[in-house]
Amino acid sequence: MTAQLIDGNALARTVRAEVAGRVAALQQRGITPRLTVFLVGDNPASQVYVRNKVADSEQTGLAATLERYPAALPQAELLARIRALNADARVHGILVQLPLPVHLDAQAVIETIAPEKDVDGFHVASAGALMVGRPGFRPCTPYGCMKMIESIGYGLKGKHAVVIGRSNIVGKPMALMLLAQNATVTVCHSATRDLARHTREADVIVAAVGKRNVLTADMVKPGALIIDVGMNRDDAGKLCGDVDFAGVSQVAGWITPVPGGVGPMTRAMLLVNTIEAAEAAAS
Ligand code: NAP
Question: Ligand 1 centroid vs 220 CA: distance in angstroms?
Answer without folding.
Answer: 19
